[in-house]
Amino acid sequence: MTNNLFSSISHHQPSIEAESDVHVIKSRLEWGEPAFTILDVRDRSIYNEGHIMGAMSMPIDGLADRAGSSLDHKRDIYVYGMNEEQTTQAAQTLRSAGFFNVSKIKGGFGAWKAIGGATEGIIEALTLPGADDYNVVSRIQNHLEHQQK
């Protein structure tokens, strides 16, 4: 019998919360944490106007089928829609389809933009950067202040 030094290390990440603050997601992105997906369940035309950078468009109509055929059921999934009701419906749809780690993004796209999260899309490309977008120190201070709340 061999003594494996790594046998006590768990390869399973803890489950994510049912609802997540945008600061948690932004922190995961900034630290380069793997194995999570952000889903935007709004209509494709609205997604094209602006969305969280890297978010996948999966409109709520047909969400279970599209997610089921393209995403790992054990993957961490953060979801947002047009409003709280659509976001809640999407999270329930994904959980019913067998996804284990689904979290609603509190405040959705608006909350993401409010903390200076990276965005992309037609309208977002035309929007001038905010005052602290190029000041790394200000962005870190702003992030730390919100993490402590």
Features:
two-stranded antiparallel ribbon; 5-stranded parallel sheet; 149 residues; Rhodanese-like_dom_sf; Oxidized Rhodanese, domain 1; alpha/beta
What are the SSEs and their pairings?
Elements: E1 19-20, H1 22-30, E2 36-40, H2 44-49, E3 51-52, E4 56-57, H3 63-70, E5 76-80, H4 84-96, E6 101-105, H5 108-114, E7 119-120, H6 122-126, H7 136-147
Parallel strand pairs: 1-6, 2-4, 2-5, 5-6
Antiparallel strand pairs: 3-7
Task: Explain how this protein is built.
40% of the residues lie in helices and 15% in strands. The N and C termini lie far apart (50 Å). The longest helix is centred in the middle third of the chain and has 13 residues. A 5-stranded parallel beta sheet has the order 1-6-5-2-4. A two-stranded antiparallel ribbon has the order 3-7. It contains 7 helices and 7 strands, in the order E-H-E-H-E-E-H-E-H-E-H-E-H-H. Helix 4 links the parallel strand 5 and strand 6. It has a single domain, classed as Rhodanese-like domain (Oxidized Rhodanese, domain 1, 3-Layer(aba) Sandwich), CATH 3.40.250.10. It is an alpha/beta fold and 149 residues long. Pfam families: Rhodanese. This is Rhodanese domain-containing protein.
